Amino acid sequence: MRKVLIDTDPGIDDAAAIAILLNEPSLNVELISCVAGNVGIEHTTNNALRLLNFLQKNIPVAKGAATPLLRENRFATNAHGASGMGSFDFPEAKTALLTEENAVLKQWQILQATEEPVTIIALGPLTNVALLLQTFPEIRSKVQEIILMGGSTARGNIGVYGEFNVMIDPEAAKIVFRSGVPITMVGLDIGRKARLLAENLDALETHPVGKMVADLFRSYDGGDISEGVKMYDPSAALYLLNPELFQTQPAFVDVEISSPLTLGATVVDFDGVFEQADNATICVDVDVEAFRQKYLERVLAIREEVANGTRSSK
Ligand code: BDR
Ligand code: CA
Question: Does residue 47 line the site of ligand 1, with CB under 6 A?
Answer without folding.
Answer: no
